Amino acid sequence: MALTMLNGLLIKDSSPPMLLHQVSKTPQLENFNYQSCFMQDLFAHFPEVLFIHRTYNPRGKVLYTFLVDGPQVQLEGPLTRAVYFAIPTNEDAKGLAQMFQVFKKFNPAWERVNTILVDPHFLLLPTLAMEFPAAEVLLSAFHICKFLQGKFYQLSLEQPVQSVLLSSLQSTMCSATASNLRKLYTLLCNCIPSARLPELHSHWLLNDRIWLAHRWRSRAQSSRYFQNLEVTTHILSQCFGTTPFEKQGMVSVFRYMQQNSSDKASFSPDVNTQGSCTPSDTSLKSPNIEQLVEARIQHSLNAICTEPAAQLCLGELAVVQKSMHLIGSGSEKMNIQILEDTHKVQPQSPASCSCYFNQAFHLPCRHILAMLSARRQVLQPDMLQAQWTAGCATSLDSILGSKWCATLDKHLAVTLLTEEVGQLLQHCSKEEFERRYSTLRELADSWIGPYEQVQL
Fold this sequence. Notes:
Layout: E1 18-21, E2 32-35, H1 37-45, E3 49-56, E4 62-69, E5 82-87, H2 93-105, E6 115-118, H3 125-131, E7 136-139, H4 141-154, H5 159-174, H6 178-191, H7 208-212, H8 219-239, H9 246-259, H10 289-304, H11 307-321, E8 325-329, E9 334-338, E10 341-346, E11 352-353, H12 356-361, H13 366-375, H14 396-400, H15 410-426, H16 430-448
Parallel strand pairs: 3-6, 6-7
Antiparallel strand pairs: 1-2, 2-5, 3-4, 4-5, 8-9, 9-10, 10-11
């Protein structure tokens, strides 16, 4: 592996950073490993619990971010607990083994790692166990919480039920006692349709070993912990997860860390690792509430919308995040101004706006997303038209294959069918339009006969 300095990407530090990566003349990085001396010192002091988060970019490359965790770590600013960044060549057993081996080579304290926290979708656990034989690998409380949140949105539950589940989840995560976890488990069994319940893996709530790694936190500590990780993962998604170019993504991550390098002040290499944070330590930076709200909106878009719809809306959200927006509220409508644009937003579900994006796609535009951000709300399933809802999009085959009752008025049936088909064809991507049109063409020809060209 070539040892090379990647100019322009390094975090400013009082001592030379270490950087290993494979040289590339393109914006893509085949593999990438980075750790500054500050990050190395931080891991050397707190190696017992390692938290691993993965962020994918549109090209399918994944950024592994290692963070220190556990009772001794009291840093609370976004990314202040990060101790290593890596992009493996391939996310397979060989690629991950190489990544972990480089990490271990430059961090002798790896032998003191006793717990590794991962997300539920981390499949290469044998590789992790082989490289860290003395460490116990557990699902992280944060990732379980995000997994369940996403499932609650996907299920399109009634609003009161969804609110109760989200509130109960948040409360339980902040006080993960065996009793509270059992109550949440029972609530899920009662509120979630039995056919969909296995998707939630609710048995995780009853695995006490998972929660022992998190239960030591007080309610206030747990709340700050989840907020901190929410902002951290959101920053990684915005910086790395929105661009197909790995170099550009890492530049954005490092630029953020440079601009917020003052967060390091709360850690000193001389700190007593057996000590604890005192109540007087008020210098720690708290997550910005706007960042938390935008992270939740982004998560709800990914959970509720189909992939093309989510990508369109995330582009609109990016405009909101980089713009000043002014909101004047009325009883039924809100005036939203972003940069030079001013439009009328109808907040009631399904929310609508006078802008071209919303009128053309019937998707939450930047103005609706700005309204949600100002109200500290997230996207709800009833704010989205059916054709854009993940897993719930109306099927053309189900419409054309419907069996009509003999007493049903045929004219009304044809009128409704024509209108529905027209809506489906108008509000879909070009590729989806071609697929649906060819299906309709084939059905019409087979029904009436190829000998008579049917006008669609």
